[in-house]
Amino acid sequence: MLFRPDFGTLAKIDPMGSVSEIESEPMLFSASYSFARRKGGPLTQRCLDALREFLDLENKQYVIDTKSVMLMPGMYPSIPGWHCDGVIRAKDGDQPDLSKMDPGKIHFIAMISSNEDGVSNTRLLNENVAFKVDKTRVWGSVNDELEKRERKKRLKTVCIPDGDLVYFTQDTPHRAEPAHSKGWRFFFRCSEYHMEPMNKIRHQVQVYTTPQNGW
Predict the structure, then answer these.
(1) Domain assignment of residue 62, yes or no
(2) 126 inside domain
(3) Does residue 91 fall inside a structural domain?
(4) Is the separation of the CB atoms in 39 and 201 below 8 Å?
(5) 27: domain range?
(6) pLDDT given at position 195
(7) Closest C-alpha among 177, 122, 125, 130 to residue 156
(8) Calpha distance 112→68 (Å, rounded)
(9) If DSSP states are collapsed to H, E and C, what string results for 102-129?
(10) Mean pLDDT (whole number) for 143-156
């Protein structure tokens, strides 16, 4: 499998939010743009205002997810490990089908945190890589290979700072970094996705304390 990362920064937004702002921000799961405008809080609106300069959010289908978490050093805000977003699975619980990877599908993300030096950020692969992927444990095998190269200092990556509104393609491997300081983190993602929005409010989220080996 050949992964060809493609990403860039579209805009800069205010990277800071108070603890009370992040803590009280409604969390959206699989939201349409109109639902996000109606139900999202000030931090969501900050991201949407910036993204609207680049996308036709009113007339094209996008799925929006947001998440607020309080982290301690070493905690992960999402399932750890290298992976790609939105890859089709035949059914829930199946492994992603990399033959259906679509580089034309784009994700847009931004992070806002309570600390000036950030809390936990997303790291992107920054070079083309090719290797054999185990179809029975797709992201587990991807993570194993990229971590092996990373340990040997043979992997180029870049970490997205708070306040950068970034786009990346579906075939751009990335991962959440463990928190490096205590604080609150707000995460925003807008995706071109193959499923219709479900327009839900998220009432709970998980943090992770140990690395996972795919899912």
Answers:
(1) yes
(2) yes
(3) yes
(4) yes
(5) 2-105+122-202
(6) 85
(7) 125
(8) 9
(9) CCCCEEEEEEEECCCCCCCCEEEECCCE
(10) 95
- Tokens read off for 41: 């809080």
Contact predicate 115/15, CB 8 Å = no
CA dihedral 156, 162, 66, 31 (to 10 degrees): -80
Count Cβ atoms within 10 A of the Cβ of residue 117 and give its class: 0-12 exposed, 13-18 middle, 19 or more buried: exposed
More confident residue, 215 or 62: 62
Q: Is the pLDDT of residue 213 over 70?
A: no
Q: What are the helix (H) ranges across the chain?
A: 19-24, 33-39, 42-51, 138-151
Residue 113 is assigned to a structural domain of this protein: no
Distance CA 197, CA 66 (A): 13
Which residue type sits at 91?
Answer: K
The percentage of the chain sitting over the pLDDT mark of 90, rounded to a whole number, equals: 92
Task: State how far the Cα of 67 lies from the Cα of 90, in Å rounded to an integer.
Answer: 26
Q: Three-state DSSP class for 139?
A: helix
Instruction: Give pLDDT, residue 194.
Output: 82
The verdict on pTM exceeding 0.85 is yes
Q: Is the per-residue pLDDT at 187 higher than 70?
A: yes
Per-residue pLDDT of 153-180, as tens digits, reads 999 999 999 999 999 999 999 999 999 9
Count up the domains in the chain and report the number.
Answer: 1
